[in-house]
Design brief:
single chain; 28% helix
Length: 147
């Protein structure tokens, strides 16, 4: 089992605000750039997409309000889980956010995907922190999430 952890980022939103924006997986689609939304479907508990010819999806397995959301693969070529951590920062209006992924990858998949997974996790965490501080990525509508 390979474990990947994003950088822990400081998001300028209280844990409950950030948690509530992400807990409904339909909101994730709105966070994607417009050109990346094609083929992505979601409901409250799951999100599915086709990425480079692979069908991949996740489903929420646990919600611990304002602290943690756990997801598990749902129709993917390998087994993995994702944890989204929302920890209280020094100020009540800030959250320490981190993503942890555990994946069952064989040696070849680990070699091919390991650094890409790490890079993607860091970009997501940094993008969320940037968005909360007014630096918006292209295609992101902050009004939908209270930013």
């Amino acid at each position: 089992m390979a474990t990947y952890k994003s950088k822990q980022t400081l998001v300028s939103k209280a844990p409950y605000e950030l948690y509530m924006a992400i807990t409904d997986l339909r909101n994730i689609i709105n966070m994607l750039p417009a050109d990346k939304r094609e083929g992505v479907t979601a409901d409250f508990d799951s999100i599915h997409a086709t990425v480079q010819g692979f069908s991949i999806g996740v489903r929420v397995t646990e919600r611990s309000p304002y602290n943690l959301i756990r997801l598990k693969d749902d129709g993917a070529p390998f087994s993995f889980s994702i944890e989204l951590h929302f920890d209280q920062a020094a100020y009540s209006s800030q959250t320490l956010f981190q993503i942890v992924v555990e994946a069952e990858l064989n040696f070849m998949m680990k070699t091919l995907l390991g650094s890409k997974i790490q890079t993607a996790l860091d970009k997501i965490a940094e993008g969320l922190a940037d968005a909360s501080n007014g630096k918006m990525p292209e295609g992101f509508d902050p009004k939908q999430f209270g930013f």
